[in-house]
Design a protein that fits this description.
Strand content: 15-25%
Helix content: 40-55%
CATH class of the largest domain: Mainly Beta
Shape: globular
Strand order of the largest sheet: 2-9-4-7-10-11
Radius of gyration: 20 Å
Number of helices: 11
Number of strands: 11
Length: 280
């Protein structure tokens, strides 16, 4: 069975990149095991995330949660410039107290069913000004320049969450998606531990199973069966890393047979569930 590839690797709490190029190749559907923020600066780019397609405008902010299956399409006839941040769950946890939570923007985006945030008025926005300072810091090679960029990134995250809390950002509700498929995606992600069959889903959503399978592939780029398996395995890894025994995880994530679960898990992550547990 085809699986989606993990892209990008994070060896520290977070990594910050400023990238400019004209030769970005078409990137296949993939996922990360960390959260990702992209600040789009210029270019002609479309982001496809969990069945939705977003045409980006300058200084749009793209939030991709760990495990979100996504791809992007880039027009290489124009320069593509962006700031990309890879963020580990541990980094977000370190900035979560009773008085603030830097992951609020991700949760708000999930509630709004949108992955792209747009600043409505750039000239009046403190968030936009913090982005500009962060962007300009990449040309600063003075004393402690890398540390300075980290400080500016934290400033950006504070302004981003303030704007999200005060509704000063537009959560883009793209029209480029199929409502029925979005309902199926939401249901699958909310019921991964349950029995999810093609026939059962078709009956629940009053749709021909063959039409549903064809439409799902057309709208998302992957089959419904692949999607369910991948999401279950990503959830399984998260639970195992939190210390849950792998035999319990197998059944908690909707698998009915441990040997099938173990084989699929090892194929995706190149290690067995017990080897992952040893790392937790």
């Amino acid at each position: 069975m085809e699986m989606y590839t993990k892209k990008g690797y994070l060896n520290s709490e977070f990594r910050l990149f400023h990238l400019t190029d004209r030769e970005t190749h078409e990137i296949a559907y993939h996922y990360h095991d960390f959260d990702k923020i992209t600040i789009f600066i210029k270019g002609n780019v479309s982001y496809m995330i969990e069945g939705k397609s977003y045409a980006l405008k300058p200084y749009d902010i793209v939030l991709v949660r760990h495990g979100d299956i996504h791809r992007l399409s880039v027009d290489n006839s124009v320069l593509y410039e962006r700031i990309i941040v890879y963020i580990s769950p541990n980094f977000m946890d370190a900035y979560h107290t009773d008085s603030y939570d830097l992951s609020f923007c991700f949760r708000k985006a999930e509630l709004e069913h949108s992955n792209v945030l747009r600043i409505s008025s750039l000239e009046k926005s403190s968030l936009f000004r913090s982005i500009m300072r962060l962007e300009h810091s990449f040309s600063d090679d003075g004393y402690a320049s890398e540390l300075y960029r980290q400080v500016l990134f934290l400033e950006f995250m504070i302004h981003l969450n303030r704007a999200a809390r005060k509704n000063r950002l537009e959560f883009i509700d793209t029209q480029n998606y199929n409502l029925k498929i979005q309902e199926i995606l939401q249901y699958v992600n909310d019921h991964l531990s349950e029995d999810l069959t093609i026939d059962g889903l078709a009956g629940r959503f009053f749709i021909s199973k063959y039409y549903m399978m064809r439409l799902f592939k057309q709208e998302t780029g992957y089959t419904l069966g692949q999607y369910i398996t991948q999401k279950r395995l990503l959830l399984a890894r998260e639970l195992i890393l939190s210390g849950v025994p792998s035999t319990q995880v197998c059944f908690d994530c909707g698998f009915r047979d441990y040997s099938t679960f173990s084989r699929s898990y090892k194929k995706l992550f190149q290690e067995s569930p017990r080897e992952t547990l040893a790392l937790s």
